[in-house]
Design goal:
Layout (H helix, E strand, L loop, with lengths): L6 E3 L6 H7 L24 H6 L5 E2 L2 E2 L17 E4 L6 E4 L5 E5 L5 E4 L2 E3 L9 E7 L5 E3 L5 E5 L3 E7 L5 E8 L4 H7 L8 E3 L1 E5 L6 E8 L6 E2 L2 E2 L4 E5 L1 E2 L16 E2 L1 E5 L7 H4 L12 E5 L5 E5 L29 E2 L2 E2 L19 E2 L5 E5 L2 E9 L4 E6 L19 H5 L16 E4 L7 H4 L15 E10 L2 E11 L3 E3 L7 E3 L12 E5 L2 E5 L5 E4 L4 E4 L1 H11 L1
Parallel strand pairs: 13-14
Antiparallel strand pairs: 1-9, 2-3, 4-5, 5-6, 6-7, 7-22, 8-19, 9-16, 10-22, 11-15, 11-19, 12-13, 12-16, 17-18, 20-21, 23-24, 25-26, 27-28, 28-29, 29-30, 30-31, 32-33, 34-35, 36-37, 38-39
Amino acid sequence: MSSTRVTVSAMCSSILLLCLAAAAVQRASAADAGAAGRGGILHIPSADELARARCPSRCGHVEILYPFGIGPGCFRQGFELTCDDIANSPRLFLGNSTIQILYVGNGENGFEASAVHFGVPTISGTNTYNMSWEAPVEGVKVAGDSNHLYIVGCGGGVYLHGHDTNDPIGFCMSICLDDKETMKKANNAEDQYGVGIGWCSISVNQDVRAFGFMVGRLNDGVSAVSGEVLSNVKVFLAEGYKFDTSDIYSSRVDERNVDGAFFNMAITDQPSCASAQKNKATYACNYKSDCLDVPSGGYACWCASDGALDNPYIMGGCRQGYNPNSKGGCKRSCGNISIPFPFGLEKGCYALDKFRLNCTSENITILDRQGVEYIVANVSVNEGYLNVQATQSNSNYNDEHVIVEAIMGRSLTKQDEPLNDLLYLSEEFDMKMWWSVENLTCSIAMSKEKRGMYACRSANSTCVNVTHGRGNTTMQLGYRCKCSQGFEGNPYTSNGCKDINECSLINICNGTCQNYPGGYNCSSCTHGKEFDPLKGRCVTSAKRRNLLLGHYG
């Protein structure tokens, strides 16, 4: 069970930031989660095996999906759940902790949970409280790109820092005005970083298993607003919060104003994919799934098909991934826009769901990225990008960067940091959206095990790794296909890359041009001839012409 240890430090009542900086950080260890490992398995089970073990599939309205599970033989070590079915409405918890799970999704490598609330005491004469939190199991971490630490109240601040270090993550302070209506008008912002009116928040920014924080109270903080007595400062971890002035008076924040927290998961019995793959007996990913190193430690498994019903942690849990063969009779245009494979409009005409486009009744090509629609103005399969514009209904996305579409987890891609150097603006189109086929390197995609789903089908094509440099590190985003040098066309279809006849280009040679598959040769004009740039070929030289005219004249 996770725990929060509160240690009280009597501090001077000077400026809050100085108090926080001077406070000694005291960390709490996580509660014993050993019980969550007993009865767990380390091999890859089949659906039949889980059925024979009579593994519960639900707790109340929440579906339970392996590697999570309840009871011996139903979960991977470290991912045991418990179901509290004593109450009228059963509730699902992570291990023996107080983290209530609200949703577990296939392929997301994470789960939605209720917000994590921290009880902040109020002790006379004490202004600063040191607190810490640690996940109850090693493989679960706070999703940094999704969660914030919120403070609700008057005259309070929070300093968030790393659990094992004093490295700062963020700081914010909440102050109040003495008039409730004025406070309501001041709270138009969805997020308040730094100093907020009645509340503020700190973005966690990084996946962490644990963190520490200090809560400070100002001696001269407002104790009443419009004559009403204020409650204690409330601190909680959540994905979102909609401020209501009533929350600063009540003992708890109204849960209707709070979005739950999101936690990522990783297999941590090995530090990386390379290490895990050396021990097939305990390797967690089924043979049709991909392994991805988790930057914060461990690894996660992904089905190449990225389907909502897929589970990379059980045998046969991944459906067919990339389909290199399109069915016949596919519509390959929408208005004047060509729709080349691997993109398509109808089922069976695109290689993966992410390559599905829609053609409206007005012959407008639409790409739907998880509810955000873009108008497609051009598809370049050989160069690996789409020219897109945000639709009018999504005009708020016009100024946002678009990330590469790669099959990764929530914390790594879905609304991840923009890849700034993969976005280009031009007069004709709003932006270029670059893409990759799958989250595999070329060497893995071309391996014997993956050869059947290898995307580069033309004999005259080559594989290109799609990467992105960030600081001193390079992130692998997958691979794409490109026609070999001297060829052009579609590398994703058989015989799709055609030879470029360079000799048909104007003035490619100052002599005789000879084309061959993949290239060309230039040779000088024969004796007595010279290259005519207007005619684009060798002609009798002027000197030779004059000699001939003089001879026959």
